[in-house]
Amino acid sequence: MQAGKPVLYSYFRSSCSWRVRIALALKGIDYDILPISLIKDGGQQLAIIEYLEETRPTPVRLLPQDPKKRAHVRMISDLIASGIQPLQNLSVLKKVGQETQLAWAQAVINSGFGALEHVLQSTAGKYCVGNEISMADLCLVPQVANAERFKVDLSSYPTINRINKTLLTMEAFQVSHPSRQPDTPPEFQA
Amino acid sequence: MQAGKPVLYSYFRSSCSWRVRIALALKGIDYDILPISLIKDGGQQLAIIEYLEETRPTPVRLLPQDPKKRAHVRMISDLIASGIQPLQNLSVLKKVGQETQLAWAQAVINSGFGALEHVLQSTAGKYCVGNEISMADLCLVPQVANAERFKVDLSSYPTINRINKTLLTMEAFQVSHPSRQPDTPPEFQA
User: Fold this and answer.
1) How many domains is chain A partitioned into structurally?
2) How far is CA B126 from CA A67, A103, B67, B77, B166, in A?
3) I need a labelling partner for A171 at 20 to 30 A (CA). Which of A70, A141, B59, B167 fits?
């Protein structure tokens, strides 16, 4: 590792790590990854993204300038990072127990995606909020990947589905993808 | 209700509503409350607080000026709003089932408070981050109230305990308290 270069403690499959990897890619920030096999899940990584936004506003802004649009971005981000992800992360599913964990994960994701689809219908353009990429998009893609992992039927969420597909064509979302990380095991590689 | 006056959809006992009530009290913003008996829990209310901060920076700032301190404030806020509160909210406890819900709530709060106490030992002054009140303090007090409701032993968390007691002496935390809301039932009134 190089002195002064930021180090991301990352786990290839963690949706929280992935959010930050997308932000770093969009900001064009070179960094080292220190893989850790067990991660403290939760939404704490939004603090990293807000910090990056405040200290590195270029080349891509992750929050719009308009306060109302910023509130929309944060509302969507929080809906995912507080309202969905924590309820289906690994530590919770372990507590729930093997037999019911798939049904539990599907229930919390479906409940959250119902609310999210409704919100997006009034905020979305090409992306989650209008036609500019934002922190909300960084939260969306890893959460949709979790939904797919838990076999959630996405056909009821056409806006979520469309935005996710658009975002996955972008370089920043591809290089940060769980299938392309230094700690990705062979069976998960693209 | 008065035209132009903000309306808060609030539930007396919701820790998420309480966070926003504290922010409104600190900012000196007059508002109407529209009580709703069932609330959509989660951390979404942080988007409201960030919006208030951006549009009403006076009389009290809820985020420090320094980017690193802002990151500390958001890290602590997210630890509570994404890492603890969603795992012990009403809808999750219903899913967990009556028999195990107290043990579940205690386990997730103890796990979160262990991490939080550790963080606060390096960030706290009089309040969660240094000697200025911040969004982190708005998250702390309602979460400690939840911990008390679930009979969590707070003696292992001396920093959390001390800051909570200091904050509860402040007017903004008192007027916003669940025991003093328009929808507080008689048995919960102070």
Assistant:
1) 1
2) 31, 45, 20, 17, 8
3) A70
CB atoms within 10 A of CB A123: 17
Q: Does the beta-carbon distance from B87 to A92 stay under 8 Å?
A: yes
Q: Provide, as residue numbers in chain B, all residues whose Cβ is less than 8 Å from the Cβ of A119.
A: none
A82 touches chain B (CB under 8 A): yes
Question: Is residue A2 in a domain?
Answer: no
Which residues form the domain of A113? Answer: 7-182
pLDDT in tens, B149-176: 999 999 999 999 999 999 999 999 999 9
* CATH code for position B117: 1.20.1050.10
Contact partners, residue B107, CB within 8 Å, separation at least 6: A95
The total number of residues shown for chain A amounts to: 190
Residue B182 has pLDDT above 90, yes or no: no
For residue A64, tell me if it sits in a domain.
Answer: yes
The whole-angstrom distance between A87's CA and the closest CA on chain B is 6
Tell whether B54 lies on the interface with A, counting CB pairs under 8 A: yes
Among chain B residues, CA nearest to A54:
B67
- Classify the complex by whether its ipTM is higher than 0.90, answering yes or no: no
Mean pLDDT computed over B101-116 = 96
Q: Is residue A156 part of a domain?
A: yes
CA distance B70 to A50: 9
Preferred mutation among B78, B89, B106, B111 to probe A, highest tally of A CBs within 10 A: B78
How far is residue B156's CA from residue B108's CA, in Å, rounded to a whole number?
Answer: 15
Among A87, A24, A110, A181, CA closest to B104? A87
Q: Is residue B103 part of a domain?
A: yes
Instruction: Give me the residue from A50, A67, A86 closest to B51, CB to CB.
Output: A67
> Please, where are the H alpha helices in chain A?
15-27, 45-55, 67-83, 90-96, 101-123, 135-149, 158-167, 171-175
Q: What is the 3-state secondary structure (H, E, C) of A72-97?
A: HHHHHHHHHHHHCHHHHCHHHHHHHC
Cβ–Cβ gap A95/B107 under 8 Å: yes
A75-122: pLDDT as tens digits: 999 999 999 999 998 889 998 988 999 999 999 999 999 999 999 999
Rg of chain B on CA atoms, in Å: 16
